[in-house]
Amino acid sequence: MINPIVDFLEKRKQKPLKEAKKPVAEIEQEFQIAVWGASAANRAAQLSLVSHPGKFSHPDARITPVLFAGEYAADGYVRSGNAKSGQDVVGNAAALDVYAFLSVVLDDGRSVLEHFEANSAVLKALLAVGEETFAAWRTAFLQIKAVDGGAKTHTNVKQVYFPVAEGYHLLSVLYPSGLMTEHRERLRQMKFSEATKAAREARRKELFHEQGFADMTGLLTLHFGGTKPQNISKLNSNNGGEAWLMQCFPPELQQHYLHLPKADFFQWLRWDADWSEIITALHKLLLTDYNNVEIRQYRQRRIEQLFDWVMGRAVLLQQQPAGWSGAEGFRLPAAQRFWLDAAYRESNPAPEQWQETITRSMSEWVVTSYKRFRKKQGDAVSLGEIEVKAFQAEMLGYAREHEEFLL
């Protein structure tokens, strides 16, 4: 039967053995349960188990450790108690190995810390130390959950005045790092799990996938702790100092206001996640040296997807009140006015080769946007007049097959 604690210490001593800064015999002695356990017990007071660390507000914030365990209630709120989340640890980052020890899970599924709390005979047997030593260690290790009398906040923690009947309460707003971590993990699984990767690959290859995948766009990344995230908390260190925020804008049930293009439709366009995905796929295609029927068909599909993406934005303008392009300050090219504004189209003859003009502008915009999009990576494939004409030919052919797209 494997002793999980011995296994834990065996793994931890591999690094000092590899570094070889001390004699092997000395390292082996340091990682005996009795020796290492005594050292860890002495350092346990340097750590505090918390649910809401204060250092997320400011690295120098010193507050009373808050260890809150909310009860479940069917109230519809995402809060402590209603959502599964772990606890966090703050204190001396050099003593985090103590928390790693207390987190070791024994054969019954409970952690070492839980066994200390239960004064477990199983843990006593695994540690193989005397009654007095075990009792002393238990007292020392359980200090990680101790809370000093009285609640103390800090000037570096954000404060909120909360009104009550005859005055106000001054609240200190703290970050629920356990919930933040659980939230990040769920998003990570949604975006990067093996199942999601398989579904994305199927979509890229235009294949059916039974499960499909969901995505969450518009995430904002917050950074805590700079180059030393471990100085904020253990969970913050595990997360690389990052927390992800979702958009909380109200739903857009209808288009209340659309900023209209005044000079050029294509300069008005703004990239989004769908456009980025299409242009990235096209970029990968441009990097290949192959030129067969399958590659050409794949490239054509991507060009058609870009065309459809542009058409989706054009439809928004075609649905605007007739005559919008003739308002003061608007100077769209004639071909674009004929394409996008019904009033102009009804009162003016079609500009010569207006469809060719539109698809030419569209092709030039695709090439220019591609170069800008890949500029940061510095790996853009060189595209010029030949590619512009090739893209235009494909777009024009696609448009003539689906004339309803342009008008």
Topology:
Layout lengths: L3 H9 L1 H6 L4 H7 L2 H11 L3 E4 L37 E4 L4 H7 L9 H6 L3 H7 L3 H11 L17 E6 L2 E6 L4 H16 L1 H11 L15 E4 L10 H5 L3 E4 L19 H4 L4 H15 L5 H26 L15 H7 L1 H6 L6 H20 L11 H17 L6
Antiparallel strand pairs: 1-2, 3-4, 5-6
Helix pairs in contact: 4-8, 9-10, 13-14, 14-18, 15-17, 17-18
Q: For the residues shown, what is the average pLDDT?
A: 87
Distance between the termini: 76 Å
Shape: elongated
What's the number of extended β-strand segments?
Answer: 6
Give the oligomeric state of the chains in this entry, treating copies of one chain as homo and distinct chains as hetero.
single chain
How many separate helices? 18
Contiguous runs where pLDDT drops below 50 for at least 5 residues: none
* Strand order, sheet with most strands: 1-2
Order of helices and strands: HHHHEEHHHHEEHHEHEHHHHHHH
- Structural class call reads mainly alpha
Strand content: 5-15%
> Helical amount among residues, as a percent range?
40-55%
Domains (count): 3
Alpha-carbon Rg, integer: 31 Å
Main sheet? 2 strands, antiparallel
Structural account:
- With about 400 residues, the protein is mostly helical.
- It folds into 3 domains: about 5-150, no CATH class; about 175-245, no CATH class; about 265-405, no CATH class.
- Helices cover about 45% and strands about 5% of the residues.
- The protein is built from 18 helices and 6 strands.
- The strands form 3 sheets. The chain has a two-stranded antiparallel sheet with strand order 1-2. A two-stranded antiparallel sheet has the order 3-4. The chain has a two-stranded antiparallel sheet with strand order 5-6.
- The chain is elongated.
- InterPro entries: CRISPR-assoc_prot_Csy1.
- Pfam families: Cas_Csy1.
- This is Type I-F CRISPR-associated protein Csy1.
